[in-house]
Amino acid sequence: MKVGELMTTGRLVTAPPETPMFEARRRMLERRIRHLLVTDQDGSLVGIVTDRDIRLNLPSQATSLSIWEINHLLTKLTVGEVMTRSVITVGPERAAHEAAQLMLDHSIGALPVTQGGRLVGIVTETDVLRAFVWLAGGAGAIGAAAGAPGTRVRPGRLP
Question: 90 is in which domain, residue-wise?
Answer without folding.
Answer: 12-119
